[in-house]
Design a protein that fits this description.
This protein is globular. Helix content is about 40%, strand content about 15%. The protein has two domains: about 110 residues, NADH Oxidase, CATH 3.40.109; about 180 residues, 3-Layer(aba) Sandwich (NADH Oxidase), CATH 3.40.109. It is α+β, with helices and mostly antiparallel strands and about 325 residues long.
Length: about 325
């Protein structure tokens, strides 16, 4: 079973706000998330929708503070905003509203009708965006596209640090490799990762298929068993180092001035907007967050890339082969 995504359906302009917001959620749920956990819930009200963290989908080993969870929710929020602007509607967004509910990350309501489009290209890129873990082509990212991504992140309060120096790239590659070895040596990490590797045919419609790791989808259970059982850190480290040195035209770090929930959400919004901008231009990306996830290595990454703030995400940009979309839960499944 696969989820059908709305892409060309007419917006329900005559419907109440609740109906309009529900329609837009079909785009929010296509946002990227760690291990494709989709750690978000939405609570629909008559005049607004609440974005909630779904802690049942947290990753306590790799993400003990729910930092990446909040980033994923921020990406879903941006997808929602991009979709609304495509249909000529502005959203009124309150980040972390005062509430006794610690899971409430944002409150969203329909705002004014707008005539200036955010970018229809961003909207049409929503179903095209992929996380591509393969080695990228040698083709370079055009300077104009890189500049646009930097400006987009800045507008959303996030610094996008581009790693161009060869020595810096090699140092980052070593940090990623070291983090790989640290993570895979931890049986808790392997168990957690393996629990989110399963076939697209599974009814849960979440997680990562074996094809994300270069194997047929039908062999996903075997892949999960291998990940859970064996410490493959050395091999994974060697593969990631090679990807960075030989198969990553551009490396980038998303950094924020502070390291709290509000800034994690901002990082997620910037991530979403940059990934959609890349996808609209035919480019792709994948994550190398390991040296940020390993707490002892995060300061080293910060120093290596001359980051004044807090590094939140490490990605590589480039051009790669076409991949099938990740599975997604339906809107009904993420409604409270």
């Amino acid at each position: 079973m696969s989820t059908h995504f709305v892409t060309n359906t007419e917006f329900p302009f005559e419907a109440p706000q609740k109906g309009q917001l529900r329609f837009l959620l079909s785009f929010a749920i296509q946002a990227p998330s760690g291990h494709n956990t989709q750690p978000w819930l939405f609570r629909l009200n008559e005049d607004h929708v609440d974005l909630l963290a779904d802690r049942t989908r947290a990753l306590p080993v790799v993400d003990p503070y729910d930092r990446e969870l909040a980033i994923s929710c921020g990406a879903a929020l941006d997808h929602l905003e991009v979709a609304a602007r495509n249909y000529g509607r502005e959203l009124s967004i309150e980040i972390c509203p005062e509430s006794a509910d610690a899971d409430l990350l944002a409150r969203i309501s329909m705002g004014n009708v707008v005539t200036d489009e955010l970018s229809n290209d961003l909207f049409t890129a929503i179903p095209k965006r992929r996380t591509n873990r393969t080695q990228f082509e040698g083709k370079q990212i055009p300077d104009a596209l890189v500049d646009r991504c930097e400006a987009i992140a800045t507008d959303l309060g996030v610094e996008l640090i581009l790693i161009k120096d060869r020595i810096e790239r090699l140092n980052v590659a070593e940090l990623v490799a070291e983090a790989d070895r640290v993570q895979f040596a931890d049986h808790r990490f392997r168990r957690e990762l393996a629990s989110w590797v399963h076939s697209r045919r599974r009814s849960s419609q979440d997680g990562m298929s074996g094809d994300a790791f270069g194997m047929p989808d039908m062999l996903s259970p075997i892949g999960a068993l291998v990940i859970r059982t064996f410490d493959m850190g050395k091999g994974i480290a060697a593969g990631d180092r090679k990807k960075i040195v030989d198969g990553s035209p551009m490396l980038a770090v998303f950094s924020t001035s502070n390291d709290d929930v509000r800034h994690w959400i901002a990082a997620g919004r910037a991530l979403s907007r940059v990934l959609l901008t890349l996808a609209a231009a035919g480019a792709t990306a994948s994550y190398l967050n390991q040296p940020i996830e390993v707490e002892s290595l995060r300061p080293q990454l910060r120093e290596t890339v001359s980051c004044e703030g807090s590094p939140q995400l490490l990605l590589r940009f480039g051009y790669g082969t076409s991949l099938p979309p990740s599975v997604r839960r339906s809107v009904d499944e993420v409604l409270v």
